[in-house]
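Re: the pair you flagged

First of the two:
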Amino acid sequence: MASGYILNRGALTIGIHCQRVCRNITVTPVRGNKRWLKAYTFIMAKKLKLEGAPPPKPRSQHPNWDYHAEVQAFSTRLHENFSLQLLKTAFINPCYLQAEQERRQGLGVHSELTALDLKDNVQLTAKGAGFTKNFLTDWCRASFPSLPSEGVQSIVGYLTSLAVVTNVARNLGMDDLTMSAEFPVPDDVLHSTFMAVIGALQESSGAERTGFFLRDFLVSQMIGKDLFDMWTVVNPMGLLMEELSKRNMVLPEPRLIRSAGASTVLPLYFVGLYSDKKLLAQGPGETLVAAEEEAAYVALRKLYGYAENHQPFDFSPQQQHEKPLIQSVSSN
């Protein structure tokens, strides 16, 4: 017992001595990289060059992923009142259900015991696509009453095109929530998913709220776009003559207004279009034909109310001039 007591006192004395000594030792951090880092970086770069970049993984395969919370956050982030069940259905594509069924069959799982209790978004996609087309058509006719039906169809076709819709959908984060058989999500699948979300919003919040959603996210894609970037016109002078004939106006007469560097390799001509001795429009060009065509484009923009200095689109909430438009869409 005495020896144990002496051993404990000795260990305590040594511990106190070491603690006092360690207080006087200061550790200075050294800046720089470890010796193994250069070799490791070189090996990983060589491996990346030989094997290529790894295939992308969906967000759902990364840690800290809660699908229900992400869907609810998507609704809150857009300040829209979605039905969560409808919103989840809007993100389920038929290709995902088919791929999941084939995967389970490949694993030997009995299809009747583990049936997928999920519904695809085919009906929501059809409903959303129809509503989107009707709303955009009515909006274009209300905003540009002088625009012919061909121009309205071209603008609607541009706003509902694959490139525009998928760009909007990716910026809203729909590709992370979309259930698809392939990743990255193909453009056609993402396009149908966006239309299904529109259909889910219409059933959840009504036609008026859905119209404002389309106005804010799709119609806004027209900002900075020229009319004839969305509408391809082969013969602008012929179209201008047709429009002037409908308005009982004198047919346009092109005249050379001014020119510069006509004898050089970079000439510039300005052609003006006159109707009843009044200047309709003028346009520049490297040749007389190109200048006359550009002047016809400028005249058409003025006739249709889509000139460069036209009144900006009004995206303020609860616009009075859009109420009958939205009501007409909801009645359809």
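Second of the two:
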Amino acid sequence: MVGLSAGEKHFIQGGIAQDLRSDGRKRLTYRPIYVETGLIPQANGSARVRLGATEVIASIKAELGKPSSSQPDKGKVSIYVDCSPTAAPMFEGRGGEELSAELSVALQRCLLGSKSGVGAGIDPLSLSVVEGKVCWDLYIDGLVVSSDGNLLDALAAAIKAALSNTGIPKVQVAAAATGEDQPEVDVSDEEFLQFDTSGVPVIVTLTKVGRHYIVDATLEEESQMSSAVSVSINRQGRVCGMTKRGGVGLDPSVILDMISVAKHVSEQLFNKLDSEISAAEACEDD
């Protein structure tokens, strides 16, 4: 928890009300975003994202597996987040475990859609190799290195950058299988298919402080929130998922307004991320 005096709380809330936050930003402005890709050689893809003093890492590992009987034409995707105890004192012990679980569930809800795959930002159909027999299992791991608020947006950005850095080995089906037999597959060590990130959304979290809501809240600002709504939005402006934090209820009209604002903000976030990912990949090539 962030310990603030009454004066500091008043200063934060007053600044937000006047559209001038403690660090000089307006209510709907993100902190500078920095992206680095390809930092974990053993992974199929990886990225580090810094959002102000918040720093997170995402890695992607692809392994061949067998699809579930209920979804034989789809691959599987799992997301797990670990909060390093060195990132913040509150991450030590059960505090870190609870936040890790909360972030993992929120990312799954926002990026993977429903259990049927509706609204999924990562298309499980693209991970199928042989229907009912072989598929790719994607393991997405997030690590919180340092925390100064807005972890969900930062983690989603890191996952998007890591996926853009991900190469899936090309697979040749050597022989068709009959009955219950598994087909023989040949996995290339040299040829890779670039993962399609065109449908992968960003997450925009709107944090309500007083009568107003802000994006990219710092830890101090989050300590003054009544509630927060995180909306995942793809490049076409379609809402892929949503999650809420905080005990205070929100009127449906307020939520609709927050979604509208999140759609607008997502455009500038996409542009900034695209620019940063392209620059990171250019540096990696050099």
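The CA atoms of residues 89 and 276 lie 30 Å apart.

-B.
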